[in-house]
Amino acid sequence: MKILIILIVLMLFTVSVQAQNYDESKVPEYVLPDVLKTTSGNVVDNKAMWEKVRRPEVLQLFENNVYGQMPKSFDSIRYSITNKDASAMNGKAQLKQVLIEVFNNSKSVKINLILFVPNNVKKPVPAFLLINNRGRSNTDPSRVMKSDFWPAEMLIDSGYAIAAFHVSDLAPDNKETFGNGVLQMYPEQLAADNGMRAIGAWALGASRVMDYFEKDADINAQKVAVVGHSRGGKASLWAAAEDKRFAICISNCSGNTGAALSRRQFGERISNINTTFPYWFNTNYKKFNDKEDLLPVDQHMLISLIAPRPVYATNASKDLWADPKGTFMSLKNAEKVFALYGIKSNLPANPPEINNPVINSALGYHNREGEHNLTMYDWSNFIKFANYHYKSKK
Ligand code: GTR
Hints:
By secondary structure, the chain is an alpha/beta fold. The protein has helices at residues 2-19, 47-67, 88-91, 152-157, 187-191, 198-213, 231-242, 270-276, 299-306, 324-339, 376-393, and strands at residues 76-87, 93-104, 107-118, 125-132, 161-166, 219-229, 248-252, 311-316, 363-368. Strands 1-2-3-5-4-6-7-8-9 form a nine-stranded mixed sheet, sandwiched between helices. Residues 14-18 have low confidence and may be disordered. Beta-D-galactopyranuronic acid (GTR) binds next to loops.
């Protein structure tokens, strides 16, 4: 009997492993929803119609079916500098640790922002903001611990301010406790099938940091790039879609329900993500487990929501779970929305070779050799991408 049970468990395991597709020839035929056709069937062929009709429609489709509502109001917000060092990083930068307290409905959250601003550079400066989904030690304000995940010195040397906050300040990355954060301020969201969940809460955190940047004379709030890796990269896309104040969006190895197309069913699928991380997306999203074709959106439409602001997405060659090709195709299929703004992307027709970044383009991309991670290679290309866009705007 025992052996029989073991055999059945083994068989089930093999079946579920086999179900994961990493074979390009097994990608099903699919038709992407037309980002430039309104729900009532009208063709969108100009910027005004995109902005007035289709963009709000697409944003709402993502809110209702994927990420949940994004509460924009709150009772009050308070900023206090909890630590300052004018000559951090051996005098290269100023450190500011800022406590951002947001109050609503008699509840509050505390966002602990770590910010380095380069010294000896004309202010205000452009900034990168990382939504940190890994250990807090990656963003050590004392710089005793250094990490390629957030190479603050490199950004400072390039003339950028570099900032980070941790996702758990907004919503613990945990099935049981994710509600113990910003969701306490918006209890109606938890009750709603289209309510905000963890990824939405993390994106909301980026917007509250942006509120602070607008008040800090050292920061050029018109030039803030929001950056995220993997689950953080899903949040960075959603933050930039919801909040037009972010000038650039960078999504590193974000994969399923990030920058990769869901309909390709390559690597991670909606059913996987909703099973392992049921608290990341709203309740309605579960309806699309194994039913990608029924979704009224796909991820090229999320990238389209960010237009005309530049978007850079990355992959790693060994990270097939995050579907490098599907990420590239998502960017490609967003091109037509950028074209409404007269912006032609410089993406090639097919995914570029490994370690061949496409920088000089409104839609940027690279597939780095290696594993699922955020590395110096990735950051060095983010800097080039921002340099390109900020320079071409002067
Ligand atoms: C994985 C998850 C991915 C990605 C990743 C990460 O387990 O399936 O969607 O978000 O975690 O955040 O590193």
